[in-house]
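hiii so um. not sure if this is the right channel but i have a protein structure encoded as C-alpha coordinates and i wanna go backwards to a sequence. like what aa goes where. can anyone help
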Protein backbone atom coordinates (compact mmCIF):
# COMPACT_ATOMS: atom_id res chain seq x y z
CA UNK A 1 0.00 0.00 0.00
CA UNK A 2 1.40 3.39 -0.95
CA UNK A 3 0.85 6.79 0.46
CA UNK A 4 0.46 9.82 -1.79
CA UNK A 5 1.10 13.27 -0.41
CA UNK A 6 -0.95 16.10 -1.86
CA UNK A 7 0.09 19.48 -0.52
CA UNK A 8 -1.68 22.57 -1.79
CA UNK A 9 1.03 25.13 -2.36
CA UNK A 10 0.61 28.56 -3.81
CA UNK A 11 3.73 30.08 -5.30
CA UNK A 12 3.52 33.79 -6.08
CA UNK A 13 5.67 35.35 -8.73
CA UNK A 14 5.05 38.91 -9.83
CA UNK A 15 6.68 40.01 -13.05
CA UNK A 16 6.54 43.67 -14.09
CA UNK A 17 8.90 45.17 -16.65
CA UNK A 18 11.31 42.25 -16.28
CA UNK A 19 11.52 42.73 -12.48
CA UNK A 20 10.72 39.80 -10.18
CA UNK A 21 9.66 39.66 -6.56
CA UNK A 22 9.29 36.47 -4.53
CA UNK A 23 6.09 36.47 -2.51
CA UNK A 24 5.79 34.56 0.76
CA UNK A 25 2.90 32.14 1.00
CA UNK A 26 1.95 33.81 4.28
CA UNK A 27 0.96 36.93 2.33
CA UNK A 28 -2.04 34.97 1.05
CA UNK A 29 -3.11 33.66 4.45
CA UNK A 30 -6.09 36.04 4.64
CA UNK A 31 -7.48 34.47 1.47
CA UNK A 32 -7.87 31.18 3.33
CA UNK A 33 -8.80 32.48 6.77
CA UNK A 34 -12.22 30.81 6.51
CA UNK A 35 -10.90 27.56 5.09
CA UNK A 36 -12.68 24.46 6.36
CA UNK A 37 -11.05 21.04 6.32
CA UNK A 38 -12.23 18.49 3.77
CA UNK A 39 -11.82 14.74 3.65
CA UNK A 40 -9.70 12.74 1.26
CA UNK A 41 -10.60 9.06 1.17
CA UNK A 42 -8.56 6.30 -0.44
CA UNK A 43 -10.55 3.07 -0.18
CA UNK A 44 -8.72 0.17 -1.81
CA UNK A 45 -9.58 -3.49 -2.19
CA UNK A 46 -6.43 -5.65 -2.33
CA UNK A 47 -7.62 -9.03 -3.63
CA UNK A 48 -4.16 -10.58 -3.94
CA UNK A 49 -3.63 -10.02 -0.21
CA UNK A 50 -7.31 -10.91 0.46
CA UNK A 51 -7.97 -7.70 2.35
CA UNK A 52 -8.84 -4.02 1.96
CA UNK A 53 -7.77 -0.75 3.54
CA UNK A 54 -9.35 2.69 3.81
CA UNK A 55 -7.48 5.90 4.54
CA UNK A 56 -9.52 8.91 5.63
CA UNK A 57 -7.46 12.08 6.01
CA UNK A 58 -8.34 15.70 6.67
CA UNK A 59 -6.95 18.40 4.40
CA UNK A 60 -4.91 21.18 6.01
CA UNK A 61 -3.38 24.43 4.85
CA UNK A 62 0.34 24.41 4.17
CA UNK A 63 0.51 27.42 6.54
CA UNK A 64 -1.01 25.45 9.43
CA UNK A 65 1.69 25.90 12.06
CA UNK A 66 -0.13 23.62 14.46
CA UNK A 67 0.75 20.75 12.11
CA UNK A 68 3.91 22.00 10.42
CA UNK A 69 5.39 23.45 13.60
CA UNK A 70 9.08 23.00 12.75
CA UNK A 71 9.82 21.15 15.97
CA UNK A 72 11.03 17.60 16.53
CA UNK A 73 8.48 15.78 18.67
CA UNK A 74 8.12 12.24 17.32
CA UNK A 75 7.80 10.90 20.88
CA UNK A 76 5.89 13.84 22.30
CA UNK A 77 6.88 15.78 25.42
CA UNK A 78 8.79 13.65 27.91
CA UNK A 79 11.28 13.83 30.71
CA UNK A 80 14.92 13.58 29.73
CA UNK A 81 15.20 10.02 31.06
CA UNK A 82 12.05 8.90 29.25
CA UNK A 83 13.51 10.30 26.02
CA UNK A 84 16.79 8.48 26.60
CA UNK A 85 14.87 5.23 27.16
CA UNK A 86 13.20 5.80 23.77
CA UNK A 87 16.62 6.30 22.09
CA UNK A 88 15.48 9.82 21.26
CA UNK A 89 17.02 13.27 21.46
CA UNK A 90 15.71 15.54 24.21
CA UNK A 91 15.32 19.22 23.36
CA UNK A 92 15.04 20.65 26.87
CA UNK A 93 17.50 22.74 28.89
CA UNK A 94 18.73 22.66 32.47
CA UNK A 95 15.53 24.30 33.70
CA UNK A 96 13.18 21.95 31.83
CA UNK A 97 11.25 19.17 33.50
CA UNK A 98 9.65 17.96 30.27
CA UNK A 99 10.43 18.92 26.66
CA UNK A 100 10.05 17.72 23.09
CA UNK A 101 11.63 14.34 22.33
CA UNK A 102 12.34 13.17 18.78
CA UNK A 103 14.92 11.83 16.35
CA UNK A 104 16.63 15.09 15.31
CA UNK A 105 20.34 14.66 16.08
CA UNK A 106 22.01 18.09 16.48
CA UNK A 107 25.36 16.63 15.44
CA UNK A 108 23.98 15.34 12.10
CA UNK A 109 20.78 17.13 11.18
CA UNK A 110 21.45 20.77 12.07
CA UNK A 111 21.64 21.80 8.40
CA UNK A 112 19.49 24.95 8.36
CA UNK A 113 16.29 25.68 6.49
CA UNK A 114 17.78 24.66 3.13
CA UNK A 115 18.34 21.11 4.43
CA UNK A 116 21.86 20.96 2.98
CA UNK A 117 25.38 21.21 4.35
CA UNK A 118 26.74 24.72 3.85
CA UNK A 119 24.97 27.36 1.81
CA UNK A 120 24.99 25.98 -1.77
CA UNK A 121 22.03 28.15 -2.83
CA UNK A 122 23.48 31.32 -1.23
CA UNK A 123 20.45 32.05 0.92
CA UNK A 124 21.98 35.16 2.48
CA UNK A 125 22.97 36.53 -0.95
CA UNK A 126 26.57 37.34 -0.05
CA UNK A 127 27.94 35.48 -3.10
CA UNK A 128 26.78 38.46 -5.16
CA UNK A 129 29.60 40.40 -3.50
CA UNK A 130 32.12 38.06 -5.13
CA UNK A 131 33.42 38.49 -8.62
CA UNK A 132 32.17 35.77 -10.96
CA UNK A 133 35.81 34.91 -11.70
CA UNK A 134 36.84 34.78 -8.03
CA UNK A 135 36.54 31.02 -7.52
CA UNK A 136 37.83 31.11 -3.92
CA UNK A 137 35.28 33.72 -2.87
CA UNK A 138 32.45 31.92 -4.69
CA UNK A 139 33.37 28.66 -2.96
CA UNK A 140 33.78 30.26 0.46
CA UNK A 141 30.38 31.96 0.43
CA UNK A 142 28.73 28.61 -0.33
CA UNK A 143 30.70 26.66 2.28
CA UNK A 144 29.50 28.91 5.10
CA UNK A 145 26.56 28.01 7.32
CA UNK A 146 23.13 28.69 5.82
CA UNK A 147 20.23 30.25 7.71
CA UNK A 148 19.60 28.18 10.85
CA UNK A 149 22.57 25.87 10.32
CA UNK A 150 24.41 24.79 13.48
CA UNK A 151 22.13 26.88 15.68
CA UNK A 152 21.51 23.91 17.99
CA UNK A 153 17.72 23.74 17.52
CA UNK A 154 15.46 22.04 14.95
CA UNK A 155 14.36 24.19 12.01
CA UNK A 156 11.89 23.77 9.16
CA UNK A 157 13.14 21.57 6.29
CA UNK A 158 15.89 19.94 8.33
CA UNK A 159 16.02 16.12 8.34
CA UNK A 160 13.65 14.48 10.86
CA UNK A 161 11.68 17.71 11.47
CA UNK A 162 7.93 17.53 10.77
CA UNK A 163 8.49 13.98 9.55
CA UNK A 164 5.74 11.55 8.59
CA UNK A 165 5.63 10.12 12.12
CA UNK A 166 4.86 13.60 13.48
CA UNK A 167 2.38 14.73 10.83
CA UNK A 168 0.33 11.70 9.74
CA UNK A 169 -1.38 10.90 13.08
CA UNK A 170 -2.72 14.45 13.16
CA UNK A 171 -4.46 14.33 9.78
CA UNK A 172 -6.17 10.94 10.09
CA UNK A 173 -9.92 11.00 10.71
CA UNK A 174 -10.89 8.04 12.90
CA UNK A 175 -14.51 9.00 13.59
CA UNK A 176 -16.19 7.47 10.53
CA UNK A 177 -18.28 4.31 10.16
CA UNK A 178 -16.84 2.48 7.15
CA UNK A 179 -18.40 -0.39 5.23
CA UNK A 180 -18.23 -2.15 1.87
CA UNK A 181 -20.92 -4.29 0.28
CA UNK A 182 -20.17 -7.09 -2.15
CA UNK A 183 -22.95 -8.06 -4.59
CA UNK A 184 -22.28 -11.55 -5.95
CA UNK A 185 -23.15 -12.78 -9.42
CA UNK A 186 -26.25 -14.54 -7.99
CA UNK A 187 -27.33 -11.15 -6.53
CA UNK A 188 -26.70 -12.27 -2.94
CA UNK A 189 -24.63 -9.80 -0.92
CA UNK A 190 -22.06 -9.66 1.85
CA UNK A 191 -21.27 -6.65 4.02
CA UNK A 192 -17.88 -5.93 5.59
CA UNK A 193 -17.49 -3.35 8.35
CA UNK A 194 -14.18 -1.73 9.20
CA UNK A 195 -12.45 -0.55 12.35
CA UNK A 196 -9.73 2.09 12.70
CA UNK A 197 -6.18 0.92 13.40
CA UNK A 198 -3.37 3.41 14.16
CA UNK A 199 -0.93 1.16 12.23
CA UNK A 200 -3.13 -0.11 9.42
CA UNK A 201 -0.52 0.12 6.67
CA UNK A 202 3.02 1.13 5.89
CA UNK A 203 5.23 2.54 3.17
CA UNK A 204 8.95 2.97 2.61
CA UNK A 205 10.97 6.09 3.23
CA UNK A 206 14.72 6.74 3.46
CA UNK A 207 16.79 8.16 6.28
CA UNK A 208 19.06 11.16 5.83
CA UNK A 209 22.43 9.94 4.58
CA UNK A 210 23.93 13.13 3.18
CA UNK A 211 23.04 12.02 -0.38
CA UNK A 212 26.33 10.17 -0.68
CA UNK A 213 26.23 7.17 -3.04
CA UNK A 214 23.72 4.32 -3.06
CA UNK A 215 20.92 4.20 -0.53
CA UNK A 216 21.92 1.38 1.82
CA UNK A 217 19.55 -1.28 3.08
CA UNK A 218 19.77 0.25 6.55
CA UNK A 219 18.76 3.64 5.13
CA UNK A 220 15.32 2.33 4.21
CA UNK A 221 12.68 2.24 6.90
CA UNK A 222 8.93 1.76 7.06
CA UNK A 223 6.48 4.45 8.11
CA UNK A 224 3.21 3.30 9.63
CA UNK A 225 -0.02 5.15 8.99
CA UNK A 226 -3.51 4.88 10.37
CA UNK A 227 -6.52 3.58 8.49
CA UNK A 228 -9.57 1.38 8.57
CA UNK A 229 -9.22 -2.40 8.16
CA UNK A 230 -11.81 -5.20 7.84
CA UNK A 231 -13.30 -6.36 11.13
CA UNK A 232 -13.97 -10.09 11.03
CA UNK A 233 -15.25 -10.23 7.45
CA UNK A 234 -15.85 -13.28 5.27
CA UNK A 235 -12.80 -15.10 3.88
CA UNK A 236 -14.33 -14.77 0.40
CA UNK A 237 -15.17 -11.08 0.68
CA UNK A 238 -12.17 -10.03 -1.45
CA UNK A 239 -11.17 -13.23 -3.26
CA UNK A 240 -12.65 -16.53 -4.42
CA UNK A 241 -12.26 -19.82 -2.55
CA UNK A 242 -9.17 -20.60 -4.65
CA UNK A 243 -7.51 -17.35 -3.54
CA UNK A 244 -7.81 -15.72 -6.96
CA UNK A 245 -9.39 -12.26 -7.32
CA UNK A 246 -13.16 -12.16 -7.61
CA UNK A 247 -13.55 -10.19 -10.83
CA UNK A 248 -17.26 -10.96 -11.31
CA UNK A 249 -18.81 -9.42 -8.20
CA UNK A 250 -19.56 -5.73 -7.71
CA UNK A 251 -18.51 -3.66 -4.69
CA UNK A 252 -20.05 -0.58 -3.08
CA UNK A 253 -18.42 1.73 -0.52
CA UNK A 254 -19.89 3.91 2.22
CA UNK A 255 -18.32 6.18 4.83
CA UNK A 256 -20.63 7.70 7.42
CA UNK A 257 -18.55 10.57 8.80
CA UNK A 258 -21.50 12.51 10.23
CA UNK A 259 -20.17 12.30 13.77
CA UNK A 260 -16.94 13.96 12.59
CA UNK A 261 -18.92 16.70 10.85
CA UNK A 262 -18.40 15.56 7.25
CA UNK A 263 -21.69 13.83 6.47
CA UNK A 264 -22.10 10.63 4.48
CA UNK A 265 -19.84 9.75 1.54
CA UNK A 266 -20.41 6.88 -0.89
CA UNK A 267 -19.20 5.51 -4.21
CA UNK A 268 -21.35 6.83 -7.04
CA UNK A 269 -21.48 3.44 -8.76
CA UNK A 270 -20.23 -0.10 -8.02
CA UNK A 271 -16.72 -1.15 -9.00
CA UNK A 272 -15.27 -4.47 -10.15
CA UNK A 273 -11.83 -5.86 -9.35
CA UNK A 274 -9.19 -6.01 -12.09
CA UNK A 275 -7.49 -9.19 -13.26
CA UNK A 276 -3.77 -9.58 -12.47
CA UNK A 277 -1.11 -9.59 -15.15
CA UNK A 278 0.08 -12.94 -16.51
CA UNK A 279 3.85 -13.40 -16.82
CA UNK A 280 4.44 -15.05 -20.19
CA UNK A 281 8.19 -14.90 -20.84
CA UNK A 282 11.61 -13.41 -20.29
CA UNK A 283 14.32 -12.17 -22.61
CA UNK A 284 17.81 -13.35 -21.72
CA UNK A 285 20.47 -10.94 -22.92
CA UNK A 286 19.13 -10.64 -26.45
CA UNK A 287 18.43 -7.30 -28.09
CA UNK A 288 17.17 -9.04 -31.24
CA UNK A 289 14.38 -10.78 -29.29
CA UNK A 290 13.01 -7.51 -27.98
CA UNK A 291 10.02 -6.42 -30.11
CA UNK A 292 10.37 -2.80 -31.23
CA UNK A 293 7.31 -2.40 -33.50
CA UNK A 294 3.69 -3.45 -33.28
CA UNK A 295 4.20 -6.00 -36.07
CA UNK A 296 7.05 -7.51 -34.04
CA UNK A 297 4.79 -7.57 -30.98
CA UNK A 298 2.19 -9.43 -33.04
CA UNK A 299 4.81 -11.94 -34.14
CA UNK A 300 5.98 -12.35 -30.55
CA UNK A 301 2.40 -12.97 -29.38
CA UNK A 302 2.02 -15.62 -32.05
CA UNK A 303 5.25 -17.31 -30.98
CA UNK A 304 3.99 -17.33 -27.39
CA UNK A 305 0.70 -18.83 -28.57
CA UNK A 306 -1.48 -16.07 -27.08
CA UNK A 307 -2.21 -13.96 -30.15
CA UNK A 308 -5.82 -15.19 -30.35
CA UNK A 309 -6.58 -14.99 -26.63
CA UNK A 310 -9.70 -13.06 -25.66
CA UNK A 311 -9.78 -13.87 -21.93
CA UNK A 312 -7.50 -14.61 -18.99
CA UNK A 313 -8.18 -18.35 -19.06
CA UNK A 314 -6.38 -18.42 -22.40
CA UNK A 315 -3.46 -16.32 -21.09
CA UNK A 316 -3.09 -18.50 -18.00
CA UNK A 317 -2.62 -21.57 -20.18
CA UNK A 318 0.57 -20.00 -21.59
CA UNK A 319 1.97 -18.41 -18.45
CA UNK A 320 5.53 -19.02 -17.31
CA UNK A 321 5.74 -22.38 -15.59
CA UNK A 322 8.12 -21.05 -12.94
CA UNK A 323 7.61 -17.84 -10.99
CA UNK A 324 11.36 -17.67 -10.29
CA UNK A 325 13.64 -16.80 -13.22
CA UNK A 326 17.33 -16.08 -13.71
CA UNK A 327 19.30 -13.48 -15.64
CA UNK A 328 23.03 -13.20 -16.34
CA UNK A 329 24.92 -10.35 -14.71
CA UNK A 330 26.06 -7.60 -17.10
CA UNK A 331 23.33 -8.49 -19.59
CA UNK A 332 23.32 -6.27 -22.65
CA UNK A 333 19.53 -6.55 -22.66
CA UNK A 334 17.17 -8.49 -20.38
CA UNK A 335 13.49 -8.13 -19.54
CA UNK A 336 10.39 -9.74 -18.08
CA UNK A 337 7.23 -9.97 -20.21
CA UNK A 338 3.63 -9.93 -19.08
CA UNK A 339 0.27 -9.90 -20.84
CA UNK A 340 -3.28 -8.72 -20.12
CA UNK A 341 -6.54 -8.45 -21.97
CA UNK A 342 -7.40 -4.94 -23.18
CA UNK A 343 -8.64 -2.52 -21.79
CA UNK A 344 -6.73 -3.64 -18.67
CA UNK A 345 -3.57 -1.82 -19.86
CA UNK A 346 -2.58 0.50 -16.98
CA UNK A 347 0.13 -0.76 -14.65
CA UNK A 348 2.50 0.06 -11.84
CA UNK A 349 5.83 -1.84 -11.92
CA UNK A 350 7.59 -1.97 -8.55
CA UNK A 351 10.89 -3.71 -7.90
CA UNK A 352 11.92 -4.94 -4.45
CA UNK A 353 15.09 -6.46 -3.13
CA UNK A 354 15.12 -9.97 -1.74
CA UNK A 355 13.96 -8.91 1.76
CA UNK A 356 11.01 -6.84 0.42
CA UNK A 357 13.00 -3.60 0.63
CA UNK A 358 11.69 -1.14 -1.94
CA UNK A 359 14.07 -0.54 -4.87
CA UNK A 360 12.17 1.55 -7.39
CA UNK A 361 8.84 1.81 -9.20
CA UNK A 362 7.05 3.59 -12.01
CA UNK A 363 3.72 3.63 -13.88
CA UNK A 364 3.45 1.99 -17.29
CA UNK A 365 0.72 2.09 -19.95
CA UNK A 366 0.06 -0.13 -22.96
CA UNK A 367 -0.68 1.73 -26.18
CA UNK A 368 -2.81 0.97 -29.21
CA UNK A 369 0.03 1.74 -31.61
CA UNK A 370 2.57 -0.62 -30.03
CA UNK A 371 1.66 -2.97 -27.14
CA UNK A 372 -1.94 -3.89 -27.98
CA UNK A 373 -2.71 -6.31 -30.81
CA UNK A 374 -6.38 -7.28 -31.11
CA UNK A 375 -7.38 -8.12 -27.50
CA UNK A 376 -3.93 -8.81 -26.04
CA UNK A 377 -1.58 -6.28 -24.49
CA UNK A 378 2.08 -7.33 -24.22
CA UNK A 379 4.35 -5.37 -21.86
CA UNK A 380 7.98 -5.70 -20.87
CA UNK A 381 10.10 -4.46 -17.98
CA UNK A 382 13.86 -4.10 -18.37
CA UNK A 383 15.89 -5.87 -15.69
CA UNK A 384 18.61 -4.23 -13.62
CA UNK A 385 21.04 -7.08 -14.24
CA UNK A 386 23.64 -6.35 -11.60
CA UNK A 387 24.22 -6.79 -7.90
CA UNK A 388 23.08 -3.92 -5.71
CA UNK A 389 25.65 -2.35 -3.42
CA UNK A 390 23.46 -2.14 -0.34
CA UNK A 391 25.90 -2.29 2.57
CA UNK A 392 28.83 -0.32 3.93
CA UNK A 393 32.03 -1.70 5.39
CA UNK A 394 31.18 -0.73 8.98
CA UNK A 395 34.14 1.62 9.23
CA UNK A 396 34.42 5.40 8.97
CA UNK A 397 36.15 6.32 5.73
CA UNK A 398 37.90 9.63 5.14
CA UNK A 399 38.59 11.08 1.72
CA UNK A 400 40.94 13.58 0.16
CA UNK A 401 37.80 15.23 -1.16
CA UNK A 402 35.84 16.59 1.79
CA UNK A 403 32.55 16.11 -0.05
CA UNK A 404 33.17 12.35 -0.30
CA UNK A 405 34.11 11.84 3.37
CA UNK A 406 31.52 9.98 5.43
CA UNK A 407 29.46 12.19 7.73
CA UNK A 408 30.04 11.70 11.45
CA UNK A 409 28.74 13.15 14.72
CA UNK A 410 31.62 15.19 16.16
CA UNK A 411 30.64 14.55 19.76
CA UNK A 412 33.72 16.15 21.35
CA UNK A 413 33.90 19.02 18.86
CA UNK A 414 37.53 18.46 17.85
CA UNK A 415 36.73 18.46 14.13
CA UNK A 416 38.02 14.90 13.69
CA UNK A 417 36.44 11.48 13.75
CA UNK A 418 37.19 9.57 16.94
CA UNK A 419 36.62 5.89 17.57
CA UNK A 420 33.12 5.29 18.88
CA UNK A 421 31.51 8.39 17.36
CA UNK A 422 28.39 7.79 15.28
CA UNK A 423 28.84 8.02 11.52
CA UNK A 424 26.71 7.48 8.40
CA UNK A 425 28.20 4.54 6.53
CA UNK A 426 28.20 4.62 2.73
CA UNK A 427 28.31 1.90 0.08
CA UNK A 428 31.55 -0.08 0.08
CA UNK A 429 31.69 -0.61 -3.69
CA UNK A 430 30.92 -4.32 -3.44
CA UNK A 431 27.71 -5.72 -4.94
CA UNK A 432 25.89 -7.59 -2.20
CA UNK A 433 22.34 -8.27 -3.36
CA UNK A 434 21.57 -10.56 -6.30
CA UNK A 435 17.93 -11.50 -5.70
CA UNK A 436 14.92 -9.27 -6.44
CA UNK A 437 11.28 -9.43 -7.39
CA UNK A 438 8.92 -7.37 -9.50
CA UNK A 439 5.35 -6.73 -8.45
CA UNK A 440 3.09 -5.58 -11.28
CA UNK A 441 -0.17 -3.90 -10.28
CA UNK A 442 -3.38 -3.49 -12.26
CA UNK A 443 -6.23 -1.18 -11.29
CA UNK A 444 -9.99 -1.07 -11.32
CA UNK A 445 -11.30 1.53 -13.74
CA UNK A 446 -12.06 3.91 -10.87
CA UNK A 447 -8.63 3.69 -9.26
CA UNK A 448 -6.96 3.92 -12.66
CA UNK A 449 -8.62 7.30 -13.12
CA UNK A 450 -7.45 8.39 -9.68
CA UNK A 451 -3.85 7.25 -10.10
CA UNK A 452 -3.17 8.09 -13.74
CA UNK A 453 -4.79 11.53 -13.95
CA UNK A 454 -2.57 13.51 -11.56
CA UNK A 455 -3.15 16.81 -13.38
CA UNK A 456 -6.79 16.77 -12.36
CA UNK A 457 -7.78 17.97 -8.90
CA UNK A 458 -8.37 15.27 -6.31
CA UNK A 459 -12.09 16.04 -6.33
CA UNK A 460 -12.44 16.35 -10.09
CA UNK A 461 -15.53 14.31 -11.10
CA UNK A 462 -13.45 12.41 -13.67
CA UNK A 463 -10.83 11.51 -11.09
CA UNK A 464 -12.96 10.78 -8.03
CA UNK A 465 -15.87 8.35 -7.87
CA UNK A 466 -16.83 9.42 -4.34
CA UNK A 467 -19.84 11.66 -3.70
CA UNK A 468 -21.29 13.41 -0.67
CA UNK A 469 -24.99 13.58 0.21
CA UNK A 470 -25.51 16.32 -2.39
CA UNK A 471 -23.68 14.32 -5.09
CA UNK A 472 -20.68 16.66 -4.96
CA UNK A 473 -17.32 14.99 -5.71
CA UNK A 474 -15.13 14.19 -2.69
CA UNK A 475 -11.34 14.00 -2.83
CA UNK A 476 -10.05 10.47 -3.28
CA UNK A 477 -11.36 7.26 -4.81
CA UNK A 478 -12.77 3.81 -4.17
CA UNK A 479 -11.26 1.01 -6.23
CA UNK A 480 -8.96 -1.99 -6.31
CA UNK A 481 -5.30 -2.81 -6.91
CA UNK A 482 -4.49 -6.35 -8.02
CA UNK A 483 -0.88 -7.55 -8.04
CA UNK A 484 1.19 -10.40 -9.40
CA UNK A 485 4.80 -11.10 -8.52
CA UNK A 486 7.79 -12.69 -10.19
CA UNK A 487 11.11 -13.34 -8.44
CA UNK A 488 14.47 -13.40 -10.14
CA UNK A 489 18.16 -13.84 -9.39
CA UNK A 490 21.23 -12.44 -11.11
CA UNK A 491 23.91 -15.01 -11.95
CA UNK A 492 27.52 -13.81 -12.36
CA UNK A 493 28.91 -15.93 -15.21
CA UNK A 494 32.43 -14.64 -14.51
CA UNK A 495 32.46 -16.66 -11.28
CA UNK A 496 32.72 -19.71 -13.56
CA UNK A 497 35.08 -18.14 -16.08
CA UNK A 498 37.56 -21.06 -16.08
CA UNK A 499 35.19 -23.92 -15.23
CA UNK A 500 33.32 -25.20 -18.27
CA UNK A 501 31.32 -27.87 -16.42
CA UNK A 502 30.03 -25.43 -13.77
CA UNK A 503 29.33 -22.81 -16.42
CA UNK A 504 27.00 -25.23 -18.16
CA UNK A 505 25.50 -27.05 -15.16
CA UNK A 506 25.22 -24.45 -12.39
CA UNK A 507 24.08 -21.24 -14.07
CA UNK A 508 20.44 -22.12 -14.83
CA UNK A 509 21.10 -21.88 -18.59
CA UNK A 510 21.76 -18.12 -18.53
CA UNK A 511 25.52 -18.49 -19.16
CA UNK A 512 27.37 -20.07 -22.08
CA UNK A 513 30.88 -21.42 -22.51
CA UNK A 514 32.88 -19.62 -25.18
CA UNK A 515 36.07 -21.55 -26.13
CA UNK A 516 37.97 -18.59 -27.51
CA UNK A 517 37.21 -14.93 -26.69
CA UNK A 518 39.20 -11.73 -26.75
CA UNK A 519 38.20 -9.22 -24.05
CA UNK A 520 40.63 -6.37 -23.43
CA UNK A 521 43.94 -8.06 -22.53
CA UNK A 522 42.39 -11.51 -22.06
CA UNK A 523 42.40 -14.19 -24.76
CA UNK A 524 41.06 -17.66 -24.12
CA UNK A 525 37.97 -19.58 -22.98
CA UNK A 526 35.38 -17.85 -20.79
CA UNK A 527 31.96 -18.27 -19.18
CA UNK A 528 29.82 -15.32 -20.29
CA UNK A 529 26.10 -14.42 -20.55
CA UNK A 530 24.21 -16.27 -23.24
CA UNK A 531 23.76 -14.48 -26.55
CA UNK A 532 26.78 -12.32 -25.75
CA UNK A 533 27.56 -9.85 -28.53
CA UNK A 534 31.28 -9.31 -29.01
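sure thing!! here u go:
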Amino acid sequence: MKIYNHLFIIIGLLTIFSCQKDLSITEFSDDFSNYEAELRIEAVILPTENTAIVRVDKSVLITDISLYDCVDDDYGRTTEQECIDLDGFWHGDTDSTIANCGDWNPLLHDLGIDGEIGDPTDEDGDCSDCSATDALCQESCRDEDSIGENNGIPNCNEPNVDSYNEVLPNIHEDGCIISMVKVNSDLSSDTCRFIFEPSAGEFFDTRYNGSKGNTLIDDFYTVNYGGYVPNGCSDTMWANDDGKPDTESEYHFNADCSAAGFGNIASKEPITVSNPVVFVGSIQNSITENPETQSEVAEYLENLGINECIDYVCLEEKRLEDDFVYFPRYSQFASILWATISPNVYFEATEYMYDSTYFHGHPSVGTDFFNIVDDVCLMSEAIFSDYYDGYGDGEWNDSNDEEDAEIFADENGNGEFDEGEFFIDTADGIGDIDTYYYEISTFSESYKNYYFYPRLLLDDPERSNLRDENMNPVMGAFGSITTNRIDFQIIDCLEFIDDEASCIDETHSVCSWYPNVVIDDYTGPACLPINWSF
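oh and The longest helix spans residues 294-304.
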